[in-house]
């Protein structure tokens, strides 16, 4: 197999990761603005990209295995080591682009995680303020029981 097919697959995969990064950026803005409906739509879009990445990744693994003739691990680094000439340069550029986009995606996802955590904490505090919990959950006998209740007789006389 030629490296051209592998390069095409890697470019597709790279493009999907870049699109996923764009979605992560949009998610940050939506989280900042607390737009729940838009967040639901964006999560669906994100899920579509994740599914597409899984499919292309499976394709990448098989094409990488073909390219390497099953000799080594199916990594991009192994492909770069095997390649020669302009093919090696293209693979190295793709590797560098992947490294950049993965680092950006990781950082953006960490930020989104923190924003989500803060939003949940704020919601929890707001709910606790609106609906405070009872501090005493044990059974207590009323202290000021009316005297009339003690002297009241039943309709049925148990001595009869």
UniProtKB/TrEMBL annotation:
Basic and acidic residues: compositionally biased ranges: 147-160
SUPFAM superfamilies linked to this entry: FlgN-like
Keyword terms: Bacterial flagellum biogenesis, Cell projection, Cilium, Coiled coil, Flagellum
Gene3D superfamilies: FlgN-like (1.20.58.300)
DNA repair as UniProt keyword: no
InterPro entries in UniProt: FlgN-like, FlgN-like_sf
Keyword Coiled coil set for record: yes
One Pfam match: FlgN
Coiled coil spans: 25-59
Span list, region Disordered: 136-160
Full protein name: Flagellar protein FlgN
Provenance organism: Metabacillus halosaccharovorans
